[in-house]
Design a protein that fits this description.
- This protein has about 675 residues and is an alpha/beta fold.
- The protein is about 30% helix and about 20% strand.
- Helix 2 links the parallel strand 4 and strand 5.
- Helix 3 packs parallel to helix 5.
- The two termini are about 35 Å apart.
Length: about 675
């Protein structure tokens, strides 16, 4: 089915069994600069799942590289633990790679005991919120030597290859960039000088490692930062890498501080494949494509079309490490999808917490959250087919229980249908598709349009109950809230009722902002219409931009707190706020809405009472648990667990993880 994806390929003289690469991903599973069992279990799971290459990293090359929040390969004492990891990855069927990094100006002082970061030039970094100290020539040579020595240790540890990170805005990017490199010596100024730092590392590394040992580099296809390198310059950088001795190039998007989304749902699938294709056209060595390639069909297509030779599956293999096995065996529909939510990965990483995954409760817990077959099968009743209930039903059936799932509406998915309605959020519906498939595979009996009560429970007499009744919207005590023209955000997203031109949204949390975005797109042109008009020169670029962002609705969001965005992930909030600004959505902070009568909204801001006319008021002020049945369950005498929003309104992550743990802790 996916012949190219699962065909072998050579990097230098090393054969890779397929074209699937698990790239280096920061996960923060230790804070002492050392590998541990959590790392080992994490990487081995990726290898067991069928990836051709598993890349360990990022790995620091010295104390100034990034601090001790990543493993370090900066001394010979580290070789033993890295050797153990390399052997474990190889025994599980993959080639083991190490990615070596130095963050330069991106190194955060708080991760390095307050030490000032070093960089080509003393430029302030928006990412690290610090100004770096300019490296001396001796320091440059020392860092280059550290790269080479760390690579030699990786080879001694038995790794099959080594990768140098020259992407995302880290140290090598900083030397390459005319924006960040303001040196006046041989490492700054001209293109030749700016590429010298990386070129010398590769040349020295090749000398030490020998001609047959694979060296790869990860590079930005376009920095996406004004004044820095674009995809017009990066092909020439790739040629420098190839000439210096690199055997393959992994191409990704821009820097961390770029104002162009790289990973979120708003990034179309395969959006950055063109960057890999641009580099592939410039070099003769294998090229690896990256970013938002969630499906085997897309991976196969980009390889067949000659846009790249291999594909990086980072967060994709976090969501389902067995993606390669499922695709290779002809069952891609059984892959738990990465929906680019960033809830458990990037949102955790940016606040310094260990990475997890919204849809994969075992991610980062591979050594402890094991799936164990039940000693004695039980009859399990699951109430509610939202994300928590679906996970509970599938996991319970997977370990051998007889499961019946009851849902009061006519379809499974619960709030996933609402959550997936705003712009760019449709990826969430893929979770429903996955659970639908697994319900069929596991032969789970599902009862739709059925309310569960105590009489039904007494009739069914299950051995165990998992209650996932969900939540309902909060109705605030505001005068006129139940009158004409007032809707709840859930109703708007679920039913898309006809609304007037001027719309007020009460509540600036995640639901309120995403509802505002949903409404702001009404009356704007679609992607296909934009392509048609642009390709036929029907309108000027300025007019097309206007048609993209100016729709038929005028939206104002009222929020009582000083800032909007509560509940929106830190990795996504800036992109969402940019979209709202582009669409002209007005935000009124520190505003208390008092009433809505006869299209007149009354609100208080800064001690002053204001009135403004709106056609509609959309309420988005939170939700509260539904526990009617859960509170009555003790009467049955049947063991039970309450999960998800029934317990406390939270994120999809909470519901899925609670469901998994309920099954594994109480039913195995």
């Amino acid at each position: 089915m996916f012949e190219t994806l699962f065909s072998p390929i050579h990097i230098n003289k090393t054969q890779i069994k397929n074209r699937i690469v698990y790239p280096s991903m920061g996960v923060l599973y230790s804070q002492d600069g050392k590998l541990n069992d959590r790392y080992l279990n994490y990487y081995v799971e990726k290898a067991r799942g069928g990836a051709g290459i598993v890349t360990v990293g990022p790995v620091g090359i010295d104390e100034s590289a990034i601090g001790h929040f990543t493993p370090q390969l900066d001394n010979d004492d580290a070789i033993e633990s890295f050797s153990l990891l390399a052997r474990a990855i190889q025994a599980a069927g993959a080639k083991a790679w190490v990615q070596l990094m130095h963050a330069g100006a991106y190194a955060r002082p708080e991760y390095m005991g307050g030490t000032q970061p070093v960089a080509p030039s003393p430029v302030y970094s928006q990412y690290s919120k610090a100004e770096a100290r300019e490296m001396t020539l001796d320091e440059i040579k020392a860092v280059q030597e550290d790269f080479v020595k760390s690579a030699a240790r990786a080879k001694m540890a038995g790794f099959d290859g080594v990768e140098i990170i020259g992407s995302a805005g880290y140290l090598i990017c900083q030397f390459l960039s005319p924006l960040r490199n303001r040196r006046q010596d041989e490492y700054g100024g001209s293109f030749e000088n700016r590429t010298r730092f990386a070129r010398e590392i590769i040349e020295e590394m090749r000398q030490i490692l020998g001609p047959d040992y694979p060296i790869t580099v990860r590079m930005a296809g376009n920095d996406f930062v004004a004044g820095s390198n674009t995809d017009l310059e990066t092909p020439e950088i790739a040629r420098v890498y190839e000439k210096a001795g690199v055997d393959a190039i992994s191409v990704t998007g821009g820097w961390h501080e770029a104002h162009v989304p790289q990973l979120t749902m708003s990034v179309p699938r395969g959006a950055y494949i063109y960057l890999a294709q641009t580099i592939k056209e410039a070099v003769s060595i294998p090229v690896i494509a990256s970013n938002r390639v969630p499906e085997p069909k897309l991976a196969e297509k980009l390889l067949r079309d000659g846009q790249a030779d291999l594909v990086n599956l980072g967060r994709v293999l976090m969501a389902d490490p067995f993606w390669p096995q499922k695709a290779g065996s002809g069952h891609p529909e059984r892959i738990m999808p990465c929906v680019a939510c960033l809830q458990g990965c990037m949102d955790e990483l940016v606040v310094g917490r260990p990475v997890k995954c919204m849809v994969n409760p075992r991610q980062g817990y591979e050594g402890e959250r094991n799936i164990i077959q039940a000693d004695k099968p039980k009859r399990v009743l699951v109430i509610g087919a939202g994300p928590g209930g679906l996970e509970a039903a599938v996991r319970a059936a997977e370990v051998g229980h007889k499961v019946e799932l009851y849902e009061k509406t006519d379809r499974i998915g619960g709030q996933l249908w609402i959550a997936g309605t705003p712009p760019h959020k449709q990826e969430l519906w893929r979770i429903i598709e996955y659970y639908s498939e697994m319900i069929k595979v596991l032969n789970i009996k599902v009862h739709m349009n059925t309310m569960v009560d105590l009489d039904l429970i007494r009739q069914l007499r299950p051995d165990y109950i998992i209650a996932a009744e969900g939540a309902r919207p909060v109705q605030p005590a505001i005068e006129g809230i139940g009158g004409p023209g007032v809707f709840n955000a859930w109703d708007v997203l679920a039913n898309d009722p006809p609304l007037g031109r001027k719309i007020a949204v009460l509540g600036g949390g995640a639901v309120g902002l995403e509802t505002a975005h949903f409404l702001a797109l009404k009356g704007t042109i679609s992607d296909s219409v934009l392509r048609f008009l642009f390709s036929n020169n029907a309108e000027s670029p300025e007019r097309l931009k206007q048609l993209i962002f100016q729709g038929s609705k005028q939206i104002t969001v009222f929020e009582k707190m000083p800032r909007v965005g509560n509940g929106v992930g830190r990795s996504s909030i800036w992109g969402l706020m940019n979209e709202l600004r582009k669409h002209g959505v007005r935000i009124v902070n520190r505003a208390s809405v008092h009433s809505f009568h006869d299209r007149m909204l009354s609100y208080e801001k800064d001690g002053k009472l204001n009135s403004e006319e709106f056609d509609n008021l959309i309420v988005a002020v939170g939700s509260r648990p539904v526990r009617e049945l859960a509170e009555a369950l003790p009467e049955t005498g049947i063991p039970f667990t309450v999960i998800g929003d029934s317990l406390e309104p939270g994120q999809i992550t909470d519901a899925i993880h609670q469901a998994f743990l309920a099954v594994m802790n109480d039913l195995c």
